[in-house]
């Protein structure tokens, strides 16, 4: 099957990384279903992709923090009868926090928006898949994670917990669904220069009286490749994980961090 006939759902499709992923996959000929909350941004993103010369794009809005919204998304996905060949699942971005004992309500909210909601959405996406490994038709799920999945970071206290939950869930799904030809891999990102992340570096620079470039050099001095990743580099890695490159890979957590993670 060529990429031109494959359909991929991308959540977080209007964000810094999601936009780059959609552009890359559109260029490769995939048909895309874009998901996020803001309808105006989804419409703009689809219009942009058409301008880039891609072919088949549409959107379904969803708020992953709401059971009702995820249920309505699932209903719409099933009703339109799309058969998905891939999913790029991006749980919403988690804000940095050093608070290691947040109140119970914070945990409930975070688990809902960053784990339970995205997992329900993923379940509905999986139910549309019709892989046939004997005919070389495989379905690929790429879950975007972060390096806190393998290494605790002091300023990402809640992320440390939720990313590990996703790693365990991805591995569990990979075991359960491998025989059907459904692959589940995670891509764990280090700092990635989305517009928001660039702005946050700028803010940190201003706070300590540095230029942007000075601060960027300081922040990346403990990364072997001496740089943060770019959204385009992430998009390339996603495309590769959706491709036949991963035909014998499932349950893998691939680090995309410039070598930052020291663990084996
Ligand atoms: N940038 C980094 O340095 C970095 C590092 C490690 C991991 N990551 C991970 O990479 C992924 C993408 O990050 P990003 O930097 O591209 O984030 P971003 O620019 O903030 O984009 C987030 C995307 O998710 C959507 N979204 C947010 N809340 C949502 C909700 N409740 N329900 C449904 N969609 C929602 C947003 O659109 P709406 O607001 O319209 O819903 C947007 O499309 C995230 O999982 C993030 O944790 C990023």
Automatic annotation (TrEMBL):
Highest taxon of source: Bacteria
Matching entries from InterPro entries are given as: NAD(P)-bd_dom_sf, SDR, SDR_fam
- Pfam family name, one: adh_short_C2
Stated family: Belongs to the short-chain dehydrogenases/reductases (SDR) family.
**Protein name per its UniProtKB record:** Short-chain dehydrogenase
Q: List the source organism.
A: Cupriavidus lacunae
